[in-house]
Specification:
Blueprint lengths: L15 E2 L3 E2 L5 E4 L7 E2 L1 H18 L19 E3 L4 E5 L5 E6 L2 E2 L2 H8 L11 E3 L5 H16 L8 H18 L2 H8 L1 H4 E2 L3 H11 L3 E5 L4 H11 L16 E4 L13 E5 L2 E7 L9 E4 L2 H8 L6 E5 L2 H12 L2 E5 L2 H11 L1 H33 L9 H30 L11 E2 L2 E2 L1 H9 L2 E3 L13 E2 L15
Parallel strand pairs: 3-11, 3-16, 11-12, 12-15, 16-17, 17-20
Antiparallel strand pairs: 1-20, 2-21, 4-10, 5-6, 5-9, 6-7, 7-8, 13-14, 13-15, 18-19
Helix pairs in contact: 1-3, 1-4, 3-4, 10-14, 12-13
Length: 480
Amino acid sequence: MDVTHPAPPSPDREIYCNRTLNLRSIHAIGYDMDYTLIHYREEEWELRAYEHLKQSFLARGWPVEELHFDPELMERGLVLNIELGDILEANRFGYVKQAYHGTRLLDLQAQRQIYARTIVDLAEESFVFLNTLFSLSEGCMYAQLVDLLDQHRIPAVMGYRGLYLEVKRSLDRAHMEGQLKAEIIADPGRFIELDEQTALALLDQRHAGKKLLLITNSEWSYTSPMMAYAIDPFLPEAMTWRQLFDLVIVSARKPGFFSSRSPLFELVDGAEELLRPVVGGPREGGVYYGGNASVVEEKLGLSGDQILYVGDHVFGDVHVTKSVLRWRTALILRELEHEIRSTRAFAAQQLELSRLMAEKDQLEVEYCQLRLEHQRAKQGYGPPPRLGTGRRQRQLRDLRSAIEALDARIGPLARASSEVANRRWGPLMRAGNDKSILARQVERYADIYTSRVSNFLHRTPFAYLRSMRGSLPHDPLHEG
């Protein structure tokens, strides 16, 4: 049989699978909107959010005139210690691998002194997990204000925790008052990065028999123009985004949407000031406000692993959904594209680094064995030494010199490896040689993850997505 095989997607556009997922068994797919169906140019969006924060603090007389948004200061997956004013990079076990106090990097000695006995537990109130791209401006402003607090230039009475709460309240206020969203509605081309393939991926899913849901925390007055701008131009003539979705729920108040029994209201004539309670369940094609996941399940006659929810927020979109409802989950990590491209560009250097590290490991084994032999000979126990004292000492010196020479070659490569994708924090999914705390969250709560919704085009609505065999430290190298 002559079969034409389509070209596989590039690695940065692949769908990665933690738990095997048969898309044929999925009967409904729910989508978040912001940073999921619609991708923002994060530097533009976060710059404006930052500027609103800055104006808020200027109005209070705080000396923030010279502060500027630094997009590389923060990345998704970092953790704020709001008791101490620190920004932390932790591995999957919660051990701190790198720390800043405000915008100042803590040296290794200071970091060990503070965090040697600390395990980062995201359930503790002192830790704030930056689990979405919307966190970048918030984290950047907080770090810079920590510097000002330490310089006694803003009221010290609030402390580092109070300072974080002021940043959070000010940013929430800017969102609540609609200042940011009004700017985006007025000039969407400045803030939104269009992906014409998203509409085709949604059409494929709909025509394959999937029920499509839009469940967003954004209000209708923002959702409607944004979806029209991002989706409508790429649909068949006379079709709008509303016809793609069987159910639209705005102001969903996630993550509470997935765990509460909040009432559902229908928007009358698309006006959020005109709401009527829903009796007997939502009707197809309507626009609804609030509600909860149980209403969705009852409307669809589906539950659990028959529903896939796709979002960008680690906690609000996939953690609670997986933990409470057992829905299947997909996480959108747009930064994955840059990270994979950067990692592949560094592949030759990484291979050389691995080769040098393997060579160093072997020399260290020999050095340790010889050192133990020297100890036994000196203390007069164990089997007789293989070498005389003088020769043994010469070999120890030679091995130590060889290891130091290797370290001189390894050092620059190791530093460059730690700066791949982000010069301060390195790869998003790694903390040193280990997986990052973000990678651990993704593993636990996202069945699949990918960089954008349109990547579903490469795997079709009928795909059987298989997870890879998990590696273990004792696996043979060719299996790991």
